């Protein structure tokens, strides 16, 4: 009777949501099972309603009931910024107020309509992220209707930074490549100084990377880093090579199938090895 029965024990799902497409990927705790791309759909728009409709189409083709689901959002759908805690801050409310003030200065207007989360820290600068409440509502509604367990919703950059936190070298900046965009966390020693994002031009080589890093260092008032550590499908020519003395560049190995679409690669960002 059990022939053909396939247990979901140890299985989980990851959904990558980009402004133009979504992907559903199944992962497993078992080392012999590779991640499997279950499906992808195009989105008719980047607004929460359109993304919610695309999500319904994607999930409607699969039985996801009872499974734990992690959602990774493209950084285009979120807002990221660095917050310096006020001097003498002792309460979470002080940190939240500082994050809101910084948000208003960077993005204009208040935080109404956005949900803010952060690595709240009263002693050092920390990273904050905001996600539209309307998008969170779409995800919550999908979890209820499809009966899956929504365990995490995280912007891609945050997922990648958390995944590689333990291997970040002293004096290094950290970067993520996705969808033709390079996002970089600039560090002053161990302190987060800024998060900067820029499109990668066609044919961007190591010279472009060095010029870009030098400009960003000037913008945030820091010296050029000793090393840049990058995850995602970065150009192989960016890696350190003989004669490159301005700074070293390490490309973390990308284990994702190179034929997978960007939204599927997005879904796996932050997955534990």
Question: What's the structural blueprint in terms of helices and strands?
Answer:
Layout: E1 11-17, E2 21-28, E3 36-42, H1 48-59, E4 68-73, E5 79-83, H2 92-107, E6 114-118, E7 126-132, H3 133-146, E8 149-155, H4 156-163, E9 172-178, E10 181-188, E11 191-199, H5 206-220, E12 227-231, E13 248-251, H6 262-268
Parallel strand pairs: 1-4, 4-8, 9-12, 12-13
Antiparallel strand pairs: 1-2, 2-3, 5-7, 6-7, 9-10, 10-11
List keywords for this structure.
273 residues, alpha/beta, Nucleotidyltransferase, domain 5, 3 domains, five-stranded mixed beta sheet, 6 helices, disordered N terminus
Query: Major sheet: size, sense and barrel closure?
Result: 5 strands, mixed
The tally of beta strands, per DSSP, is: 13
The CATH topology name of the largest domain reads Nucleotidyltransferase, domain 5
Name of the CATH architecture of the largest domain: 2-Layer Sandwich
Main CATH class of the largest domain? Alpha Beta
| Count of the domains | 3
C-alpha end-to-end distance: 35 Å
Return Rg in Å.
20 Å
User: What name goes with the CATH superfamily of the largest domain?
Assistant: ATPase, nucleotide binding domain
Unreliable segments of 5+ consecutive residues: 1-7
Please report which band the strand proportion falls in: under 5%, 5-15%, 15-25%, 25-35%, 35-45% or over 45%: 25-35%
Structural class computed from helices and strand pairing = alpha/beta
> Residue-averaged pLDDT, rounded?
89
Order of helices and strands: EEEHEEHEEHEHEEEHEEH
Rough shape?
globular
How do the strands line up in the largest sheet? 3-2-1-4-8
- Approximate helicity band: 25-40%
By DSSP (H or I, 4+ residues per run), the number of helices equals 6
């Amino acid at each position: 009777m059990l022939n053909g029965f396939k247990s979901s024990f140890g299985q989980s799902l990851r959904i990558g949501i980009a402004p133009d497409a979504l992907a559903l990927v199944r992962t497993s705790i078992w080392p012999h099972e590779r991640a499997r791309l279950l499906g992808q759909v195009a989105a008719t728009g980047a607004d929460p309603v359109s993304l919610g409709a695309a999500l319904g189409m994607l999930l409607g083709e699969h039985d996801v009931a009872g499974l734990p689901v992690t959602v990774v959002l493209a950084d285009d759908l979120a807002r990221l910024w660095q917050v310096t805690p006020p001097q003498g801050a002792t309460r979470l409310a002080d940190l939240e107020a500082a994050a809101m003030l910084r948000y208003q200065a960077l993005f204009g207007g208040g935080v109404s309509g956005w949900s803010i989360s952060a690595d709240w820290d009263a002693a050092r600068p920390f990273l904050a992220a905001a996600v539209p409440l309307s998008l969170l509502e779409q995800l919550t509604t999908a979890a209820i209707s499809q009966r899956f367990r929504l365990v995490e919703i995280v912007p891609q950059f945050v997922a990648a930074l958390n995944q590689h936190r333990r291997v970040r070298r002293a004096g290094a900046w950290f970067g993520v490549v996705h969808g033709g965009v390079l996002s970089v966390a600039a560090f002053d020693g161990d302190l987060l100084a800024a998060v900067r994002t820029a499109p990668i031009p066609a044919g961007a080589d190591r010279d472009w990377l060095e010029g870009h890093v030098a400009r960003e260092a000037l913008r945030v008032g820091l010296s050029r880093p000793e090393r840049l550590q990058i995850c995602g499908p970065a150009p192989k020519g960016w890696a350190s090579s003989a004669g490159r003395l301005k700074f070293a560049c390490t490309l973390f190995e990308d284990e994702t199938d190179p034929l997978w679409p960007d939204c599927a690669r997005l879904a796996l960002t932050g997955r534990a090895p």
